[in-house]
Amino acid sequence: MEIILLQDVEKLGSKGEVANVAEGYARNYLFPRRLAEKATPGRIAQVRQIMEEKAAQARREAERADETRDMLSKTVLTIPVPAGSGERLFGSVTNQDIADAIYGARKLRVDKRNIDLEDPIKLLGSYMVKVHVHSTVEPAEVKVIVVPEEHKV
């Protein structure tokens, strides 16, 4: 019996695939658990069209992410922070600070969890920080320059 999988089933296939299984397995296990449905020619065509649309959407997202990565790679962020003597900061520069600086410079929202910063920055200077924009695209390298904040008198 031909079925269309509605969810991933271990050792059988992934969602949207057409599989050939025993009639008892389909009737007694897959159908009651809503893991599959009976395959008809119309439904197979409909599922294939949906899968093609999802693949096209994923390609468009990857292209947009590639453009975003290129834009971020050309970005240099200057973050002014209060600093003491010896180039040490009062506090630190965190992932959230970098995400806010990216939004301020490029009007692009980046989740702070997508910024690859092992430890917070605690010294003045220049740093290369990796920013993950999409799972299929290599991370962008953003140059972050930490400068002392100007005191207002």
Morphology call: elongated
Q: What is the domain total for the residues?
A: 2
CATH superfamily of the largest domain: Ribosomal protein L9, C-terminal domain
CATH architecture grouping of the largest domain: Roll
Question: Would you kindly provide a written description of the structure presented here, covering whatever features stand out?
Answer:
Helices cover 35% and strands 28% of the residues. With 153 residues, the protein is α+β, with helices and mostly antiparallel strands. The chain folds into two domains: 2-62, 3-Layer(aba) Sandwich (Ribosomal Protein L9, domain 1), CATH 3.40.5.10; 67-148, Ribosomal Protein L9, domain 2, CATH 3.10.430. The protein has a four-stranded mixed beta sheet with strand order 4-9-8-6. A three-stranded antiparallel beta sheet has the order 2-1-3, with helices on one face. A two-stranded antiparallel ribbon has the order 5-7. The termini are far apart.
For this entry, give a set of tags:
3 helices; 9 strands; 2 domains; alpha+beta; 153 residues; Ribosomal Protein L9, domain 1; Ribosomal Protein L9, domain 2
